[in-house]
Amino acid sequence: MQRHVSLFALTALLLIGAASVASVANAQYRVPQRRYSIEGYFIGEFLGAYRLRVNGDRRPANDIDLDPTLGAGVRVSLYSGVFAFGLMTEFRGYGNNQYSDRDFAFDISPFVGMRIPVLTNGTNVVRLRGTVPFGFTVLKPNSEAWGGDAYLGFNTGLLGGVEISFGNFGVFTDLGVRFHRVYANNDIALVGRADASLSWAQLSLNVGAQLAF
């Protein structure tokens, strides 16, 4: 838990530092304005573990360390000055050493964020970026361990990074923490009939490309 708090704090400091230079950047440079953008990106997530609660009680004996997670996403952003908001859709496959088949999660997440220009040269712009998603998650787990049903829940996180735009095209990277929690009130193979929740947090790295208009 302390590790996750530290990661959140580090990302928050990055966003605060970015916000502090926003007025200077806007005063010094005439930045090309964007109305919206479409981004596609790869997701790599590291560290973290499944943490199970049954009827409100933690079950540390059922914690499962996660392997590095792979996924992909699409983000549609609308802009108003340095502020951004829109929708992220993401797909991930979670692996571990307890069973061979991966668990799969699909996220639909509205987000708010900032895109702060710090360098510009004509239509080429370097921006610091911060993103806070909060959305809906569907997890389809390994049936032998967790049962055959899909579990519903939520996700959130805090991401900070940098993007480089060359006219309408750009590339970017984000680093931060993503948190998920899903719920079940049925038969779970590991514990039987129960009201349960499964949560996990991982260090998240996104790398992708962008088209802006």
What features would you describe in this structure?
Strand 6 and strand 7 form a beta hairpin. The longest helix has 19 residues, at 2-20. The strands form 2 sheets. This protein has an 8-stranded antiparallel barrel. The relative contact order is 0.22. It is mainly beta and 213 residues long. It has a single domain, classed as Porin. The termini are far apart. The protein contains 3 helices and 13 strands; from the N terminus they run H-H-E-E-E-E-E-E-E-E-H-E-E-E-E-E.
Cα-to-Cα separation, first versus last residue = 40 Å
Task: Return residue spans where pLDDT drops below 50 for at least 5 consecutive residues.
Answer: 20-28
User: Percent range for helical residues?
Assistant: 10-25%
Helical/strand content category: mainly beta
The CATH level-2 architecture is identified as Beta Barrel
CATH class: Mainly Beta
- Sequence of secondary-structure elements: HHEEEEEEEEHEEEEE
Total number of beta strands: 13
Number of helices: 3
Outline type: elongated
Biggest pleated-sheet summary: 8 strands, antiparallel, barrel
Kindly state the mean pLDDT as a whole number? 85
Walk across the major sheet and give the strand order: 1-5-6-7-8-9-10-13
- Strand percentage lies at over 45%
Total discrete domains: 1
The CATH topology: Porin
CA-atom Rg in angstroms:
19 Å
